Every structure is written in structure tokens, then in C-alpha cells.
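Need a sequence for this fold. Nothing fancy.
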């Protein structure tokens, strides 16, 4: 139809709605994408609190143990919150529609929250800790960052069997790295544990994906870790013990899961060999 005053065509409301529906999915964010962006925001803010609350006061000579403790706890809590966003965006994406750029957003956000943020935490640890060596810590930080980069790139290229990851998931690796630092071990054991965690992230060890009961257990563990960090940050009675217990449990889990995965692979290999021998024996006259 033509507007008699302007001689311009009228666009029906229904046609305008159709045009909106025809908008490419790549230009629209889904709910899962919004959660993923929350993940990236938490990672960036973790870097911010590590800088303003730990590094800058140390460089200016105005460092206070209470302020540094609160900032460290805030930075790690933000990484934990990023892990919650990362857990939830996958669950939401499976239940609801996800945009085509969801996978790319997820990888980029994970790189910030579980690559840059923990690597920067390691770097700052090397600058403020009394027994740490700054240059060696910088190398360890680069190793952590590159391990996450390689792991995320491999995740995009390699197809694994359903329900499994190859290599330690980057959120689990990031939380393990910061747990090692918060445990306040001597420098050499801390360095070796950080390098070992980076190696696990690029290894071929299979880790189960957090689904169903495992996802609920992981969420409960993250919330518990937040409570331990909060108790430590506010110097609550027993807060230091809670923090050390939580960090130790995180490290024990990081070391135990590969052992179970390796034992499972060995048992599977043995079962396959036995089945092959039995099959060959059955074929003999």
C-alpha cells in the first residue's frame, strides 16, 4: 500500500516482525551467551582486584596484610564465580537455544577467567612473596597461560567421546593453581605444583564433564570454597584452617583424578587384550 501524503510504502507490523526474526542468529545473544559474558567480566575484575589490592600497595609500600588478604580472597571468589557462570552457560545452552557464536564466546571468556587471571595471580605472587623469585614466577605464569591457550584450542579441534574432556578442564586448573598459591608452601614446591597443573591441562588424561549429579557436586564445592575464602578474608575464627583445608582438598582432587583415569585406561587396555586373545583362540580349529 502507498501512503497518499508521502507516496512511501507502508510496512505492515507483521512484516517488521518477520524482518526481526530474519536477523542472523550470530547478531543476537542468547541467555547462555549472557552468562558467558558474565564469566569474562568476573575474570577481568579478578585481575583488577589482584592489581589494586595486592600489587600496587606492595609497589608503593602501603601494603597491609588485611587489605591484601581481602583483595586476594575477592579475586579468587571472582574466579570461582566465573566457574559458576561457565558451568551454567553450558547447562542453559543445552536446555535453550544458543547462538552460533556461543562456542567462540565461551573459549574467549575462559581464556580471560581461567588463563589470564590465574597466570596474573602467579605473576603477582612472584613479586610480593618473600621467598619467591620474580623471573621464575613470570615463566611459570607464562606456562599456565599457554597451557590454557593450547587446551582451549585443542578443545575446539579435537572431538572426544560424549561426556569426557581431554586434559584438566581450565576452570579446575585455574582453581588448582590459585589453591597452590594460597596454601603458602615453600617456593620450589609451589612452582613444581603449578607446572604440574599446567601439564595436566594439556595432557591426554580424560576428565568427566560436569553433568547431572557431578554438576551439582561441583556447584556445591565452589560455593563451599567461596565460604572458606570469605571466612579467611574477614579473619573469622578458624578461617585460616578452613582455607588451608579447602586448598589442600582441591590439590588432592587435582592429583587423584588423573590416577583414577590412568587406572581406568589401563584396565580397559587389559580387557581389550584379553578379549582379542579369546577371539583368536575361538577361531583356531
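Here you go.
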Amino acid at each position: 500500500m502507498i501512503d497518499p501524503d508521502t507516496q512511501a510504502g507502508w510496512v505492515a507490523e507483521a512484516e517488521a516482525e518477520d524482518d526481526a526474526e530474519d536477523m542472523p542468529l550470530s547478531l543476537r545473544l542468547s541467555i547462555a551467551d549472557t552468562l558467558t559474558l558474565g564469566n569474562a567480566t568476573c575474570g577481568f575484575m579478578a585481575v583488577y582486584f589482584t592489581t589494586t589490592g595486592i600489587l600496587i600497595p606492595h609497589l608503593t609500600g602501603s601494603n597491609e596484610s588485611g587489605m591484601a588478604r581481602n583483595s586476594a580472597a575477592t579475586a579468587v571468589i571472582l574466579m570461582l564465580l566465573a566457574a559458576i557462570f561457565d558451568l551454567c552457560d553450558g547447562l542453559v545452552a543445552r536446555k535453550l537455544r544458543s547462538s552460533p557464536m556461543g562456542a567462540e564466546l565461551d573459549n574467549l571468556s575462559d581464556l580471560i577467567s581461567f588463563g589470564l587471571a590465574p597466570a596474573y595471580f602467579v605473576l603477582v605472587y612472584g613479586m610480593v612473596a618473600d621467598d619467591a623469585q620474580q623471573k621464575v614466577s613470570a615463566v611459570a605464569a607464562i606456562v599456565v597461560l599457554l597451557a590454557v591457550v593450547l587446551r582451549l584450542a585443542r578443545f575446539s579441534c579435537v572431538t572426544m567421546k560424549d561426556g569426557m574432556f581431554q586434559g584438566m578442564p581450565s576452570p579446575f586448573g585455574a582453581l588448582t593453581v590459585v589453591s597452590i598459591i594460597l596454601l603458602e608452601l615453600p617456593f620450589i614446591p609451589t612452582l613444581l605444583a603449578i607446572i604440574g597443573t599446567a601439564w595436566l591441562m594439556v595432557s591426554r588424561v580424560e576428565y568427566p564433564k560436569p553433568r547431572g549429579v557431578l554438576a551439582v557436586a561441583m556447584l556445591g564445592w565452589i560455593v563451599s570454597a567461596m565460604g572458606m575464602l570469605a571466612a579467611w578474608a574477614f579473619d573469622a575464627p578458624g578461617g585460616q584452617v578452613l582455607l588451608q583445608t579447602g586448598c589442600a582438598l582441591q590439590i588432592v582432587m587435582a592429583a587423584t583424578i588423573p590416577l583414577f583415569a590412568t587406572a581406568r585406561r589401563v584396565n580397559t587396555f587389559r580387557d581389550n587384550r584379553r578379549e582379542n586373545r579369546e577371539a583368536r583362540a575361538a577361531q583356531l580349529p
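For context: The first helix runs from residue 13 to 21.
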